[in-house]
Amino acid sequence: MGEPQSPHESVLLAEVLGALAPLDGAVVIDGTFGAGGYSRALLDAGASVVGIDRDPSVAPFADALAAQFPGRFRFFAGEFSALEDAAEGAAVDGVVLDIGVSSMQLDLAERGFSFMRSGPLDMRMSGEGESAADLVNGLSEAELANLIFAYGEERASRRIAKTIVAARSETEISDTLELARIIEKTVGRKPGGPHPATRTFQALRIAVNREFDQLVEALFAAERLLPEGGRLAVVTFHSLEDRIVKRFFDETKTAGPQSRHLPQAAQAQPRWSPVRKAARAGAAEMARNPRARSATLRSAIRTSMAARPVLSSGLGVPGFTRGAA
C-alpha cells in the first residue's frame, strides 16, 4: 500500500522549522497535525514528534508517519488544547500550532467548510456536536447577526442575518451553496473581490469548533508545558487569531493601563522572549500556495517565569453570547 498523498501544503514551513531550531534530538508537539506536513519536516530534521488532531480523517497520514518513523512519532486523537495530555509526562522542547481549516477539509464538499462546493452545512472538525446548520437554523436573528459580526468582522451582518431568517422560514437551510447564494444575493459581489460569503462562513466555522477558546487554552497549556528555553510557533490565518497570539506573547498588551497618579508597579519579567519578528509568506510561496497569503507566524522562547493562570481578558478575544440582543 502506498503512502497517502496529502492535498495540503503546510505554510511558512521553513520559517516554522527555523523558529523551533535546533531540532536534532528535540521533542516537539505538532498541535494541529492535519496531513502531517509540519510533523514530517520535523521528523526529517531529527526531532521526535507527537501529533494532535481531532479530525478522524487524518488517521491515514498519522499511520504512515508512525510506520516510517517508529519510536519517533506518536499520534494523539483530540483537541490541541490538550497538549499536556498528549505529552504524557514527557519533556517537551517545542510546540507548533497551525490554526484554522486545512485545504483537505475545504476540498471535501461533504465536510461543509467551503462555499464553493455543494455539501451539507456541517463544518465540524471532529464530526461531533453542533453543526453550522444547527446555528444557521436555530439562532435568533439578533444572535446570528452578532455571531457573524464578532467572529467574521462582517459589516453587513445584520442584513445577512435578516435574509437568512427570512429564507429559513420557507425551508431549512442545509446546503453550503444554498447559504452562499443567500449571502451573495444580499450583499452583492464585487468583480475580483473575495466571495461575499467568506466572512460568514469563517464566523460559523469558528463558532462550531470553538476555535478561539481552543486557541487560548492551547497557548496557556504550552506556557505550562514548556520549560525555560522551550519554543512555541503559532501560524494564524486572520487578524482575530493573530491579535490573540500577539497579545499573549506580549504581556504589556494585557497588563492594562496604570494611573499616572499612583506609584508605578514594577514591570514583571516576561514569560516569553520573541524568536524573531512576525513572519509572512514571500511572493514565491504565495504564488505556489494561495492559502499562504493570509498566514502570519509568531514565535517565542519560554523564560523561567512561572506560568500564568488561563485568562482570556486582555487578549482581544471576540465575544459572542447566545441570548444577547
Task: Describe the model.
This protein has 325 residues and is of the alpha/beta class. It has helices at residues 13-20, 37-44, 59-68, 83-87, 103-107, 132-138, 141-152, 157-168, 176-187, 198-209, 211-225, 239-249, 283-288, and strands spanning 27-30, 48-53, 73-77, 94-98, 231-236, 272-274, 279-280, 296-302. The protein folds into two domains: 13-98 and 211-302, Vaccinia Virus protein VP39 (Rossmann fold), CATH 3.40.50; 110-209, DNA polymerase, domain 1 (Orthogonal Bundle). The chain is 38% helix and 12% strand. Strands 1, 2, 3, 4, 5, 6, 7 and 8 form an eight-stranded mixed sheet that branches. Helix 11 (211-225) packs parallel to helix 12 (239-249). The N and C termini lie far apart (55 Å). The model has no long low-confidence stretch (mean pLDDT 88).
Please summarize what this structure is.
With 325 residues, the protein is of the alpha/beta class.
Topology:
Layout: H1 13-20, E1 27-30, H2 37-44, E2 48-53, H3 59-68, E3 73-77, H4 83-87, E4 94-98, H5 103-107, H6 132-138, H7 141-152, H8 157-168, H9 176-187, H10 198-209, H11 211-225, E5 231-236, H12 239-249, E6 272-274, E7 279-280, H13 283-288, E8 296-302
Parallel strand pairs: 1-2, 1-4, 2-3, 4-5
Antiparallel strand pairs: 5-8, 6-8, 7-8
